[in-house]
Every structure is written in C-alpha cells, then in structure tokens.
Specification:
Blueprint lengths: L1 H6 L14 E9 L4 E3 L3 E3 L12 E3 L6 H18 L3 E10 L2 E8 L6 H8 L3 H9 L12 E3 L6 E7 L20 E7 L2 H11 L10 E5 L4 H13 L4 E3 L1 H9 L5 E2 L2 H9 L5 E5 L9 H11 L4 E2 L2 H15 L15
Parallel strand pairs: 2-7, 10-11, 10-13, 11-12, 13-14
Antiparallel strand pairs: 1-2, 1-3, 1-5, 3-4, 4-8, 5-6, 8-9
Helix pairs in contact: 5-10, 6-10, 8-9
Length: 334
C-alpha cells in the first residue's frame, strides 16, 4: 500500500477481499422482463481461478435449493435493472451459505456452446431472436423460466499450450492461460470427468507414480488426497516438504529431491504431477522448474488440489472398468 501511494497519492487504491468458496456461473437469457435460466454451472477449482482455466460441471451437483434461488433472484434483478436483451453471463461465489455476485456480462460467454451441447438446445438461436425484438414469453418461456435438468452431465476441461512458451508460469490463477477446451459428456459425473481428462490429454488409468509437491499451506488436504490415491492403488512420489507430511501420516511413498523429480518428469517416469505453488511466478523456485518440466514433457500437471480430487474420481472410474455411457439425444425446445 505504501508503494502504491508513493507512485500516485492522488488516486484511490482498490483493495479486494478474497472470499474462499465455490464458484458458480450461469448463462441466462433475458428480455428485461422475462428470464430464461438454462441451469447453474459449478467450477471444480475454488474461487480465484480464472473461469477459462477452471474445470466446469453442468448441471452443478449438490447445490442447496436456497443457493439456486438466490442466484436466480440476483439474475432477475440484473435483468430488470439493466434492460437485458439477449445473453446475461454472471459468475458468483458461495462463501458459507451466502451468495456473492463476482461479475455480470451482457454477452455470450465461452460456456454457451458447452451448456447448449449438454442441454441439446440451441441457446444462441433463442438469444438472437430476443435481440431482434421477440420476448421470451412469445417464444414460450414466460416469467422466470427454468429449463428441465438435462439427461446427462457435462464437464468442460481447459487445454493449455504453455509448453510452447518457454519461461511462462503454468499454475492456474486469476490470469487466464488456457488456449482451448474440451468437453466430456456422460450420464454420470465420474464418467464425464473421465472423458474430459482423456480428451485433454491424460492417459487413464494412470500408469506409473503420482508425484506430489504441495505448498505448506495445502499439505493437510494433500495428505487426505494422498490417502485416497493410495487406496485407489496409486504409487506416490513426493518432494521433501510434502514427503515429510506423508511420513507423519504413515503413507507409503518415495522421497525425491527436486533435481530427481525434474529428471523423472523429463524422462516420463511419472504418470502425473500435482504441484501446488507456494508463491506466484518465480522462475528461481524449484516448484516452478518442476511445473515447467511437466508441461514441456507433456506429463499431466495439476496445480490445484481440487483438480487432483477430480482426477482421482476419473482414475477410480477407469480402474473400476466401468463402461462410459452414451450421451443423451437432443432435447425438445419449448
């Protein structure tokens, strides 16, 4: 703060408070009076990861009805106050049981094709007709209209090209880094996660060790993750700090230093890496070099524990030899 005021004491400094919680997203269509709500999406990663870099599940699983009601209430208030004519993309964070609006955009989002595919409904056509003057009531969507829940689950996963950008940080955060995305569709969430990870380049089930290198603040949760990974039949490798946490928990693992870890990743001796950074971009830190090595060797590298939990869901699905279910056909519009 002192440094900011020293640069320009005449202008205010914006101070944001970070609220940890679950991030939600909606691509609604409004006409200023009526509102069409296709459903609510939920990000896999905790709030703070750019929506373009987060894995997204639609429809959102296990949301309390009061949270959905509050989200829709906020959307309808925006619809009326802003005189929306077309798409209204909004993102929220649920902190405790309180819903906070993060941002609202009067435009189509990258998630519109995703939601349309899961629903089997051409949302762009509906929004275009509203933009050209039709009301949602005329189109068969009066009041606050909720589309029926889809017969399948969709998972959107980001795809990165960071291996082509030497020296770039690869950890997910508030800045978008992905250059594309893929979709997994299935009748059940584990199957959709499995398809999304495979489409993004992961080889499942994992063949080889899972390498863990996790910031101190996240190690308690990393131990819980590791315990589940061992139960799923995975072999664990860990860098020194994380290895100490696993040792205290009595979990079997192989301890490797950072030089050994980087060499193993470059030699593709590990199946995947979970590397949660301690700080942001800093090329001098060993964790940065480990993440870069993983991306450059095209070894799956997860920089959020929430993504790692989702990967274990997909691994267990693959190890159980469950058959992925075909996707549902298109739904009727109206």
């Amino acid at each position: 703060m002192r440094a900011a005021l020293a640069v320009d004491p005449q202008h205010p400094v914006l101070v944001d408070r970070y609220l940890p919680g679950v991030e939600l997203e909606v691509d609604a269509i409004g006409d200023g009076t009526h509102l069409l709500v296709p459903g609510v999406m939920q990000h896999v990663e905790r709030a703070g990861v750019h929506s373009g870099d987060s894995m997204t599940v639609f429809p959102a699983p296990h949301l309390p009805p009061e949270v959905v009601s509050r989200v829709v209430e906020i959307l309808q208030s925006l619809n009326r106050a802003l005189g929306v004519r077309g798409f209204l993309n909004a993102q929220f964070v649920v902190h405790g049981y309180r819903v906070y609006l993060l941002e609202a955009n009067l435009r189509a989002s990258r998630t519109v094709p995703f939601v349309s595919k899961v629903l089997g409904i051409p949302l762009v056509q509906v929004a275009t007709r509203v933009m050209l003057g039709a009301s949602l009531e005329e189109l068969g969507f009066p009041g606050v209209y909720h589309l029926p829940a889809p017969r399948q689950v969709g998972v959107k996963a980001p795809v990165f090209s960071s291996e082509k950008l030497p020296g770039a940080e690869v950890a997910v955060g508030p800045e978008m880094r992905s250059t594309g995305e893929v979709i997994g569709l299935d009748r059940h969430l584990p199957g959709a996660l499995y398809k999304a990870f495979v489409a993004a380049g992961a080889r499942l089930p994992l063949q080889g060790p899972l390498l863990l290198s996790v910031a101190r603040r996240e190690r308690a949760e990393a131990v819980r993750l590791a315990r589940r990974a061992v139960a799923a039949g995975l072999v664990l490798w860990a860098t020194p700090g994380t290895a100490e946490a696993l040792q205290r928990a009595g979990l079997p693992h192989r301890r490797v230093n950072y030089e050994q870890a980087v060499a193993a990743v470059r030699g593709r001796e590990v199946a995947a890496v979970v590397c949660v950074p301690t700080v942001g971009y800093d090329p001098t830190r060993p964790g940065f070099r480990l993440r870069r090595a993983a991306f450059e060797a095209r070894v799956p590298c997860l920089t959020s524990l929430e993504t790692a939990w989702a990967l274990l869901d997909a691994v267990e699905f693959a190890r159980a030899a469950l058959t992925p279910q075909p996707t549902a056909g298109p739904a009727a519009l109206g």
